[in-house]
Fold this protein.
Amino acid sequence: MSDEQERTQTTAEAAEATNATRNGARPGAIWPEATAVNADGELTFHGRTAAGLLDEFGSPLYLIDTDEVRDRARHFVRAAAQAFSNSTTHVSFAGKAFLSKEIVRIVTESGMYVDTCTMGEMRIALAAGVPGRRLVLHGNNKSDAEIALAVEQGFAKIVVDEPDEPARIAAIAHRLGKRARVMLRVTAGIHAGGHEYISTAHEDQKFGVPLVPAGTDAAVFGVLDHLDDVTPAASNARMAERRADAANATDTADAEKTRPGDHLGEGRELRYDVRYPYDLSHEEVGPTDRALAEAMTAVADGPALAVLKDIAARHEDLELVGIHSHIGSNIHDADAFIQAAKRMMLLRKTFYATDAITVPEVDLGGGYSVAYVPGEDSMDIDAELGRLAAAVHDVNRALGMPDPAVSFEPGRWIVAPAGVTLYRVGTVKPVHLADGTTRTYVSVDGGMSDNIRPALYGADYTALLANRRGSERTMLSRVCGMHCESGDIVVRNVQLPDDIRRGDVLAVPVTGAYGRTMASNYNQALIPAVVGVSEAGAHVMIRRQTIDDLLALDVSD
Ligand SMILES: Cc1ncc(COP(=O)(O)O)c(C=O)c1O
């Protein structure tokens, strides 16, 4: 949008501009579909005016359009099933994005599971009446109590995050007389979403277990982009421990052909099984086959495979459900997911090659982007999951593996565009800048305590005057909060009508994810209520905190 356009934009025009791309889960949507501007220039949600909602429920206020959440949840579940039409798909809603009992019911009724990662999230999901078999437990530092609750309730997956965890989960499951379903979170060396890919295969971060040993050259994975030349001889390769093989080498010498130079890593060698399923003794093994063998060897030597073996060895107490990868947040297309998925398929292939175990499910995590400001991209789920599905299928075909069940964990994509925060305007202060321009600081009655993302990540938002049409003329504005931090910014730069004044209502869209769940009591601010709006009306979903809530925690005399 040009400066000229920005200056002459009125509230209604701005809303219409965003409405033009707004339609349920369509890319680029920044307002819930049922947002409109009435004849008086007021912003409405399912026909309820912004000012009316603040009058009834107080300010500031988180709005969540529950119809929109339901539409988006169904959309994602359907898109995954259609893209992976020959596989089972599971979609879990990442509860860290936003959690309430009602949202848990809406997403599970829409076919989703729910991801939790703390006792609080687990208890809210269970309190919603959702059975454990629809829930997932994540966490890099799970307590025994969290693991025990997940095992008792029969959670669909407990995601193992470190090498010692299988033993802990197995012991707890054993004590409870249950078998726990576990998945292993793997760091595949792909990081996406606001950062460049990190090409080192060993990531310096707290989550998951590395796919390959530290210091492995990520170039070893290059073969995954050129699998067309892999011959059946390589895709049927089995990896054997050398010492074990030495004992029966003579018995099997005529059945399996071990080629010179195929000795890979300490204590291991790759064998081309010439009997199963075809006699390939006449075939030559090519350079791509060797490159694949090298990649499989790096994976076979990596920490993740060792943990998978440990889980498999504890099969009486643990059921290995799958492997998991989460690569980042707010990712616009499938490219990085495809790279991560290929590495996960390589791990699955390698585990089959070493232990003849086929991991049933691969979870590709969350991180699907939404647009926060007009003109920004959001991930086109239908198109991008289609590309991902094709890549997953191709890599498995080349590796001679059946496609796994595939699962996803979107959070932001489901709830962010369904949320709008409403604030009352307080101080309006023009600040003259060194370059001769003026920026007007428009203070609102919330800020970093209800939306930490601008302060934490420099996240961009936009805002509209929501209670009246406002002047035709606009001014460069910065919407800031009421907290004792100069970084307490809600919207860094936005054109607002130049007659904005105390008592007006501002609406900030796309606040449905990581707003309420990251809210704090900084400066003893009270966390706002969450109001659900839908065709059926408006109702309090999570009540506003009160001063009594704060004082109830302060128990000293
Ligand atoms: C393991 C895992 N899954 C899913 C998500 C959800 O990500 P998003 O809300 O960006 O889709 C996260 C976010 O941090 C995560 O850590």
Residues 94, 96-97, 115, 138, 326, 329, 365-368, 409-413, 513 surround pyridoxal-5'-phosphate (CB under 6 Å). The mean pLDDT is 88. The domain at 3-65+416-553 is CATH 2.40.37.10 (Lyase, Ornithine Decarboxylase; Chain A, domain 1). The chain has 18 helices and 24 strands.
